[in-house]
Each structure stands twice: as C-alpha cells, then as structure tokens.
TrEMBL record:
EC number of the protein: 2.7.6.3
CDD domains for the chain: HPPK
InterPro entries named among the record's database cross-references: Hppk, Hppk_sf
Source species of the chain: freshwater metagenome
The keyword Iron is assigned to this record: no
Protein's name according to its UniProt entry: 2-amino-4-hydroxy-6-hydroxymethyldihydropteridine diphosphokinase
Keyword terms, alphabetized: ATP-binding, Folate biosynthesis, Kinase, Nucleotide-binding, Transferase
Pathway note: Cofactor biosynthesis; tetrahydrofolate biosynthesis; 2-amino-4-hydroxy-6-hydroxymethyl-7,8-dihydropteridine diphosphate from 7,8-dihydroneopterin triphosphate: step 4/4
GO biological process, one term: tetrahydrofolate biosynthetic process
C-alpha cells in the first residue's frame, strides 16, 4: 500500500535527525520518494524555533496502525519527548495517507485531519508527487493553491 509520511524537527541537528528517521523508516517500508528538506515557521503552539520539514512516499505491507506504532517507536528512539502539545520536538512523524484508507480511531485518523491545511506538508509532497490527492479533500496542488490565496 502506498503511504505518505510527513517528517519534522526543530530541536537538535534537525537535518541529521530527519535523515536518520528516513533510514529507520526504510527498514520497515520501502521509501520510494523523499522531498527536499524545507525550513518552515511553526504553526500553533508555544513560541519555538523554525522546523525542518520533509515528506516521503513509500510502499508498506503494514496495516496503518502497525505502521503508526513503528513510527512512534522511531520518534522515541530519536529522542522525542511529549511534554507540550504542538511544542518543539526532535522528531515528528505523521502518517498522512495510507492507500485509500479512511478511518477514525482514538489512535489514528486517516487521511491526517489537518494535512490539507498545512503548507509544510503540501509543498514538499507536491514536489515529489505533482498528481497527489488527499482522499476526500482533493488534489494537493489545489489545496496548496487555496492556502496561498488565503494568506
């Protein structure tokens, strides 16, 4: 199943942390595309440093919840501590889409409930997949265009 994962970091050596996360993800899925790393301003939460963000596309044989649990383990391995909601972090991994899965559980909502509102997800995703779509939301290109018009 095709999966899209957003990566972010704003504590520590963010580029090295993101590269390490991609390498670890490649042990559990087959990473087929990786965007450039882009610097973005934080959205919501307390005042904090800018983020380094990226998006990757891969193929996974894991079910979405299994993949989520593996991603959470990678965050922990790379120093993620959950203290402040939307606060600074060494690593944030978000499962954006998993095939055409649409689900809402206490642990996981697919597609990601705010991905369509986040330029820091849409821009790098569009870079590696110009025809990308978010199930139920539309084309990444159109969603990003709407965000830029709203600025």
């Amino acid at each position: 199943m095709k999966v899209v994962i957003a990566l972010g970091s704003n504590i520590g050596e963010s580029a090295e942390i993101l590269e390490s996360a991609v390498n670890r993800l490649n042990n559990i899925i087959t990473v087929t595309h990786l965007s450039s790393f882009i610097e973005t301003e934080p959205v919501g939460g307390p005042e904090q440093p800018n983020y380094l963000n990226a998006v990757l596309i891969g193929e996974s044989e894991l079910q979405p919840l299994e993949l989520l649990h593996a991603m959470l383990a990678i965050e922990t391995e790379l120093g993620r501590v959950r203290e402040v909601r939307w606060g600074p972090r060494t690593l944030d991994l978000d499962l954006i889409v998993a095939g055409e899965s649409v689900m809402k559980t206490p642990e996981l909502e697919l597609p990601h409930p705010r991905a369509h509102e986040r330029a820091f997800v849409l821009e790098p995703w569009l870079e590696i997949d110009p025809d990308a779509n978010i199930p139920g939301k539309g084309s990444v290109y159109s969603l990003l265009s709407e965000l830029h018009l709203a600025e």
